[in-house]
């Protein structure tokens, strides 16, 4: 096989009810008030903007993105990540969690590329294919990824 391709939503969408927005707004407002009590107006503004962005992002539906693993590298939508700039990969396949491919890159900022893996793609097929180009190295999900899954992003 010369490539593996699939389409998947950029993240798993969870319907959020009205109480979710009330919680985010309430926690954001409490943080803003606390920040103002301590005299940090700039931080209060930052917290307020953060709460608004979280609510807007929470209402957003994910896009369907094409993913391709081919001999030149890993392609996400139109961006190609050549194998020479990637260090290793790990296929995360835990039954109660969404399946993912975690690719470690050489970048200092955003060192992990996390690809959602479609349910029709076999884990062993991905391991065999990527194993030709990258070493398989156990990689844990970042706290940000775990929290975003937990909170429905």
Task: Give a brief outline of the structure.
The chain has 153 residues and is an alpha+beta fold.
Textual characterization of the structure:
With 153 residues, this protein is of the alpha+beta class. 37% of the residues lie in helices and 25% in strands. The protein is built from 4 helices and 7 strands. The chain has helices spanning 18-37, 41-59, 123-131, 143-150; strands spanning 4-9, 64-70, 73-76, 79-82, 86-92, 100-105, 112-116. The protein has a 4-stranded antiparallel beta sheet, covered by helices on one side. The protein has a 3-stranded antiparallel beta sheet with strand order 5-6-7, covered by helices on one side. A hairpin with a 6-residue loop joins strand 6 and strand 7 (112-116). The two termini are 33 Å apart.
What is the strand arrangement across the widest sheet?
Answer: 1-2-3-4
Q: What series of H and E elements makes up the topology? A: EHHEEEEEEHH
Task: State the end-to-end distance.
Answer: 33 Å
Low-confidence stretches: none
**What integer is the average pLDDT?**
88
Q: List the quaternary state of the chains.
A: single chain
**Rg over alpha carbons:** 19 Å
By helix and strand content, what is the structural category? Answer: alpha+beta
**Got a strand count?**
7
Helix fraction, binned, reads 25-40%
Q: Globular, elongated, flat, extended or rod-shaped: what is the shape?
A: elongated
């Amino acid at each position: 096989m010369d490539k593996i391709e699939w389409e998947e939503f950029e993240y798993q969408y969870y319907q959020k009810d009205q109480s979710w927005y009330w919680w985010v707004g309430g926690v954001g407002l409490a943080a803003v008030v606390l920040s103002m009590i301590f005299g940090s107006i700039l931080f209060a503004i930052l917290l307020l903007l953060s709460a608004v962005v979280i609510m807007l992002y929470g209402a957003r539906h994910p896009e369907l993105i094409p993913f391709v693993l081919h001999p030149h590298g890993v392609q996400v939508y139109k961006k190609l990540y050549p194998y020479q700039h990637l260090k290793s990969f790990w296929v995360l396949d835990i039954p109660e969690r969404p399946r993912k491919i975690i690719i470690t890159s050489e970048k200092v900022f955003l060192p992990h590329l996390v690809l959602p893996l479609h349910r029709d793609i076999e884990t062993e097929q991905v391991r065999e294919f990527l194993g030709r180009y990258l070493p398989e190295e156990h990689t844990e999900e970042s706290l940000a990824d775990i929290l975003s899954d937990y909170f429905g992003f």
